[in-house]
Specification:
heterodimer; A: mainly alpha; MetI-like fold; 2 domains; two-stranded antiparallel sheet; 13 helices; 2 strands; disordered C terminus; B: alpha/beta; Rossmann fold; 6-stranded mixed β-sheet; 20 strands; 35% helix
Chain lengths: 326, 576
Amino acid sequence: MLTFIAKRLVQSVLVMLTVALIAFSLFRYVGDPINNMVGQDTSLEEREELKERLGLNDSFLVQFGRFAANAAQGNFGFSYQHRRPVSGLIAERLPATLELSIVSAFLAMAIGIPMGVYTAIRRNSWLSHSFMTLSLVGISLPTFLIGILLILLFGVVLRWLPTFGRGDVVQLGWWSTGLLTASGLKSLIMPSITLALFQMTLIMRLVRSEMLEVLRTDFVKFARARGLAEKYVNFVVALKNTMVPVITITGLQLGSIIAFAIITESVFQWPGMGLLFIQAVGNVDIPIMAAYLVLIAFFFVVINLIVDMLYVVVDPRLRVDSAGGH
Amino acid sequence: MAPDPSLLTIEGMRVEFPSRRGHVVAVERLDLAVEPGEILGVVGESGAGKSTIGNAVIGLLEPPGEMTEGTILLKGDRIDHLDEAAQRKIRGARIGMIFQDPLTSLDPLQTIERQLVDTIQRHLNLPEAEARGRAVDLLDQVGIPDPGVRIAQYPHQFSGGMRQRVVIALALCADPELVIADEPTTALDVSVQAQILDLMKALCRDRQVGMILITHDMGVISETADRVAVMYRGRVVETGTTDQIMSRPEHDYTKSLISAVPRPDKRLKRFPLVTYIEDAEERPEGLNLATHWLGKVREEHKLTGNLVELKNAHMRFITRHSLFPSRRLYLDAVNEVSFAIQPGEVFGLVGESGSGKSTIARMITGIYKPSGGTINFDGTDMTALHSRAAAAPFRRQMQMIFQDPFSSLNPRMRVEDIIEEPIHFHKMAYDQQEAKQIMHDLLDVVGLGARAARKFPHEFSGGQRQRISIARALATRPRFLICDEPTSALDVSIQAQVLNLLKDLQSELNLTMLFISHDLPVIRQICDRVGVMRHGKLLEVAPTETLFTDPQHEYTKHLLKLMPKFRGFRMPELEA
């Protein structure tokens, strides 16, 4: 188990270094950093001096090492556009994105898994058929369209929910949360549904097909033949075996929820990292883009690590050091 | 109702599976009775409806299957057409069930303890601690050593035979009166099979449990059952005591089924066929292989000495990876094995699963690279050939037939493409026309006929698929054929046909063969010399008759002793 975690950690570090290299190349070689920082009226000497001061004349490896070391401490330099440290900007925006993503992921799982289980057990009921049809809508409609339709219905026509922003937030240290105010919660409803819908249908379909597979296995048949209650067979025996592949996909999906919050954040003007990133792209604010890239990669790596460890918790066959067996 | 009803009585059972093309009748007009402490064997080939009986009794027919006629009485109470809740009170509590494959019958994510305790608590109102005590007792009774410790383990930590013992313990959790065992030992090795059968016999006797033992294996029936019902196409054709059925069968199907079982005690020229089966196929006459292209190519090789020779061949797998060499674990799947096969000889390899038989086949064909030793083919050291291109001509000359006819053919390819693929790969034909001709000839040779060419594998039965595999293997005109358990997935009647075909082809084409099997009677019928393997080591090599009459190694003697002593009825005309 320890060897396994150590191995995974080494792999994670390699992945992070690769992403850092890409982010660094972006920063260093897309456009001229000096030009991006200074105005038209800076003289050539001043530019040279700045270049020297920022270490841009050093060798590639030294520069990359410095970038990686800074990045590891959360230091990504100054935003060209905001003239503030990137780390500060991200720290401001991170809570908004994480709250939205986690609420969405929770929604997707809390609704998607039971729906998947239901459609697997009652395969031929009309409710299952309508779930399956609805899920096609969820998978095929693009996120931004769902967002706009929701805004049109609940924001413009019915005027029940706010159409943009986070509402009132409460500061808990450096973390700003919208979960503690009524307007914050109301603002969260539409964006989180928009973001969760695709994942929800995906999880539902995945759980359904995995569960149908498990329900056909011998051990489920044997459990029935022992007279165990239907509930026990479905939820203790079958569902647990269904979860092994579901955990992987769901874990990876959580990563992409965070990464692809960009679209939802733009539609709802949600003040998160995605919106910051979109604006950075518009203004060629490369330090922010580089920081965003590294941060998202970091999320993916951490989630993957957790998924791998969850695997071992759920499936005893993966506990390699256990005695006996083959 | 009789004053003392049988434990289980089935009268006039008919089970139908509605489908779009009309109803399929799986079982009809079936009458059976089981008494306490009695083992009733239900025997028949696949598709005869044996398993359907078990599923119908326990109320777990796969929908849309339905019992449309007849009654099932358990101690005089009707148990067919009960509602789900009432059915569930019978399942496990009064009728226990044992399935074929112990590797898939247990929930892999729960400990044995959880599964046992939950089942016990479901049927008997016991507190956790008492239920656990009972579970430990049960494990002890089914012969699991150290039950107090092992109960906390997961299924994957048990071997196949041990898992089947756990399955039996689970079936006995609530002291059922009747146990239905559906092919309980088919997935197990011979020695484990004998132990499990002994255990089931003892449990039935001691607990006065009635048992329905469903199997295709005549040997298992003759060793275990008190009475036998022979099934053919959904009907019982004959019932009687085991002794009577085995020695004086009355129905023609029973007679030919029993005589088709390969004999362990005597070598016959050909395998007796189950003549009762209407669609039994034989090779069309008229193809003279001696003058046919299949037989010709071989002339170019002047055979001297051994065709295949293994010297200290060794195969080592890492079973636990670690950075530190001292913590790595290895498995020596094949341990310093040396033997030689002469041209035209059929060499048998016998041993239990995990003994390294198949690994040797894979080393010879180059699927695995040996970790030590040499493998010579026609005087060339195959282990010294490093590129695929250098090995290709040798690969062409050795072909393989695998065990599972269902997974060894690509389901998306037509039979013609499957057979032509190796011809094209090894550039054995000048043009498409010639390849087609070869393919058609091959289909004739294996007795399938040209109509098979355009079909897909799923349109064929297991035996027919194995014929396709043989045709594919012959397509490159090999000199050396490796058969890895070629018939262990087939019914007795089909097995006889396929083995006869292999035998004919072997002698007509003068093929050299490596024949891998765990089935000693089959080995005796087909092989010239036999090697016995255990734990990766080759223990003994001897001419077949010598090995069977005068085994040298202790393990060989042990294996021969375990071989089912099946001496049933023999068709008089086959004794020639």
